[in-house]
Amino acid sequence: MKPTPEHNNRMATMTFTSVYPHYVTKIEKKGRTEDELQKVIEWLTGFNKNQVQTFIDEKATFKTFFEKANLNPNAHLIKGVICGYRIEDIENTLTKQVRYLDKLVDELAKGRKMEKILRVA
Questions:
Q1: 7-12 contact pairs (CB < 8 A, 24+)
Q2: Does the CA dihedral 89-83-100-51 come out positive or negative?
Q3: Contact 38, 49 (CB under 8 A)
């Protein structure tokens, strides 16, 4: 499936605040912790827990969230399908970055070891 321009726009305008609680619920249902989620987010974006909380408090969009992120140089190693989209085939940079985060959260929820989630070249 290829993301449409409408889909890409929806990704850009969606707030991190609206999605974060779903991430927490998803991983906690599977026995993982919010601290592990924070570690994954920090690996991908460079944001510490306080910075993530600021984005939540400010109701920042994913566009703002990823514009301010310092994306991990190994993020390109995140591959596979998430939400019906093959990550490596997504052309829109922001949509790809959002799907990177979705994929990492999914791997965390599925019980993948942290060393595997935090990819090393």
A1: 7/95, 8/92, 8/94, 8/95, 11/62, 11/92, 11/94, 11/95, 11/98, 12/61, 12/62, 12/63, 12/94
A2: positive
A3: yes
Residue 96 sits in a domain whose CATH number is 1.10.8.290
CB 42 within 8 A of CB 70: no
Report mean pLDDT in 10-residue bins for the chain, 121 residues: 82 95 97 97 98 98 98 96 92 96 97 93 59
Domain that holds residue 62: 5-117
Q: How many domains, in total, are found in the chain?
A: 1
What tokens appear for 20 in the block?
């974060």
CA within 13 Å, CB half, 84? 5
Q: Are strands 85-86 and 81-82 parallel, antiparallel or unpaired?
A: antiparallel
pTM > 0.85: yes
